[in-house]
């Protein structure tokens, strides 16, 4: 019932507030997405604004001041019943350790209504940056301001922190905030190359998180049938690629494909525990008898044997089992986007 009422409030309130939000705000807004924010940031860098003020708001969704937020909502919502309902959601509390804890500040997360109050409060920050003539891109609580020099960036950083903490009563994490080159920072999950075109690339943390998730799905200690393991991998990889297809990541995807196939070979070798099982399975793959006996009796670990069995279990074997290729899917998505954009191709 709470989610239903929150969705009803969102559908009525969103058109009222969204119409006056800044065009440089992209988070949780209809018709806008993270890709648009990244492209806008790229455009700023291409226009010689090659320094960024990356401001991190510490635990933003947990620190929103209720009185300040309600004052801004009341600017356009005059029905006291609606205001009372919104205030009730803000004060509803959270369940923790079997009990309810009252929330004195912060917005309810994971609900349909939660992103709108955040945008309403941060709209004051957007208006202030626009009034100063600054070039910025904000995605939810992640705000990047682009300037032409490091000196200007430090000056902007100091003044914006003063505004956010004094006027909006928010807490800026000074350890995570920085004035730096855009290619040394990430914005949401992406980064840039230092070339003139500011080519979009994958952020190092994005690559690390991807590998950690694949390691979890292909762990030798997870007793899963190979078909189910591959299905889980496909679902995660295709969803991940659907979001990060914006980045120029061909070389990374080639490495990922080979690495994932090797991890699957490792899992398969682990499942063939007995020597006779290994001989039987390798023979079924048309491996010569002498090679079957050598590999089956090897004392190397599963990870080392995953390299040796590369010839016996080639890429076509994994494709037959249903494993999808990140590189091929990336090329398909890239081709489809360019085709939709009116580009012409010469087919040879």
Set out the fold topology.
Layout: H1 2-18, H2 34-46, E1 51-56, H3 60-63, H4 66-73, H5 80-90, E2 94-96, E3 99-101, H6 115-131, E4 135-139, E5 142-147, H7 150-166, E6 178-180, E7 190-192, E8 200-202, H8 204-217, H9 226-244, H10 250-271, H11 275-284, H12 289-296, H13 302-308, H14 315-320, H15 326-340
Antiparallel strand pairs: 1-5, 1-6, 2-3, 4-5, 7-8
In summary, what is this structure?
With 348 residues, the protein is α+β, with helices and mostly antiparallel strands.
Word description of this protein:
The strands form three sheets. This protein has a four-stranded antiparallel beta sheet with strand order 4-5-1-6, sandwiched between helices. A two-stranded antiparallel sheet has the order 2-3. The model has no long low-confidence stretch (mean pLDDT about 85). It is of the alpha+beta class and about 350 residues long. It is elongated, with a radius of gyration of 26 Å. A hairpin with a 7-residue loop joins strand 7 and strand 8. Helix content is about 55%, strand content about 10%.
Task: Please provide the count of β strands.
Answer: 8
The portion of residues assigned to helices is 40-55%
Alpha-carbon distance between the two ends: 58 Å
Report strand order across the widest sheet.
4-5-1-6
Q: What is the element string, with H for helices and E for strands?
A: HHEHHHEEHEEHEEEHHHHHHHH
């Amino acid at each position: 019932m709470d989610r239903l009422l929150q969705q009803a409030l969102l559908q009525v309130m969103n058109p009222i507030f969204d119409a006056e939000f800044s065009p440089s705000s992209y988070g949780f807004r209809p018709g806008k997405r993270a890709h648009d924010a990244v492209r806008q940031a790229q455009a700023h860098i291409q226009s010689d604004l090659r320094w960024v003020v990356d401001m991190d708001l510490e635990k933003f969704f947990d620190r929103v001041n209720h009185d300040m937020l309600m004052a801004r909502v009341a600017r356009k919502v005059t029905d006291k019943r609606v205001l009372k309902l919104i205030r009730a959601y803000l004060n509803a509390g959270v369940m923790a350790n079997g009990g309810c804890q009252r929330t004195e500040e912060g917005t309810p997360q994971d609900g349909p209504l939660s992103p709108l109050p955040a945008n309403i409060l941060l709209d004051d920050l957007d208006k202030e940056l626009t009034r100063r003539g600054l070039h910025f891109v904000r995605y939810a609580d992640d705000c990047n301001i682009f300037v032409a020099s490091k000196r200007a960036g430090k000056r902007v950083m100091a003044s914006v922190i003063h505004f956010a903490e004094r006027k909006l009563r928010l807490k800026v994490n000074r350890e995570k905030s920085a004035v730096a080159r855009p290619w040394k920072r990430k914005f949401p999950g992406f980064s840039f190359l230092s070339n003139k075109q500011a080519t979009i690339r994958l952020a190092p943390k994005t690559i690390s998180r991807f590998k950690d998730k694949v390691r979890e799905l292909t762990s030798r200690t997870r007793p899963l049938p190979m078909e189910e393991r591959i299905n889980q991998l496909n679902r995660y990889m295709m969803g991940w690629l659907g979001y990060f297809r914006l980045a120029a990541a061909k070389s990374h995807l080639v490495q990922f494909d080979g690495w994932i196939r090797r991890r699957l070979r490792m899992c398969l070798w682990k499942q063939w525990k007995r020597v006779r099982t290994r001989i039987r399975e390798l023979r079924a793959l048309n491996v010569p008898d002498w090679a079957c006996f050598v590999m089956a009796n090897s004392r190397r670990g599963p990870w080392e044997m995953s390299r040796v069995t590369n010839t016996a279990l080639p890429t076509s074997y994994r494709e037959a089992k249903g494993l999808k290729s990140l590189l091929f899917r990336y090329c398909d998505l890239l081709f489809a986007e360019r085709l939709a954009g009116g580009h012409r191709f010469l087919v040879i």
